[in-house]
Amino acid sequence: MLKLCLFVLGVIWCAGLAQLPSLWSLGGLGVLALLVARTGKGRWSQTGLLAFCLLAGLFYADMRAQWRLAQALPAAQWQQPVYLQGVVRDLPVPGEYGLRMRMDVEQVLTPGAVLPERVQLMLFAKKGESMPQWHAGQRWRLTARFRPRQATANPYGFDAEQWLWSEGVLASGSVLPGAQYVEDAQDPGARVDRLREGLVLRIDRVLGRTRAAGLVAGLTVGAQQGIARQEWQSLSRTGLTHVVSISGLHITMVAGMVASVVS
To answer: What is the model's pTM?
Structure first.
């Protein structure tokens, strides 16, 4: 347990650093600590092992952070049109001005262009037009203009940019006219997303666009976009936000296991 705690402490330590250390330096220190643990005696061996666990956590977090930084959108491509192919992930979120969604980039078809593996897209709808019909798990070819993902970070408020960083969303873009639907992706993630979207649509048909529909969708399949801001505030005041945050598919999986055991 102590070793695991030191590994986690190393991850936390990396998060608090003003500058990421060199992976080569951390790797060298880790090898040195491991040699001390293997060749030392008594307390030296134990100290070397504990130091190795701490450095392993720091190395892991550093490696993940540097890998994520390497995917950042190059400044030369800001607001430049990029042609790509990707798959819609999670559930598209309709809003006042159009449709917001996440997409896993499969191919960048513009020569010389580079994009992060995951981006956030906004498909705007003109006033009076119906909402664009894009669905979870669909593969599209499209052209979009991208910019680095940025958001406000008010003191003591929600840091949206940090959250998007943790989710791997490193760029956001606006879809330009001419997008082409290719096919429905058949990987397990796409199948699960389509199933979730189908359940949300069924809940909406049965309950309508009501407060209950948003809460039921959030609790059953983790579709939290239907929960109004006022509901989140009420959950926060009563200390129940974790009920929705840890629910979704987890509750569905537990319910399915219980149902199979009972039957």
So the answer is: 0.67
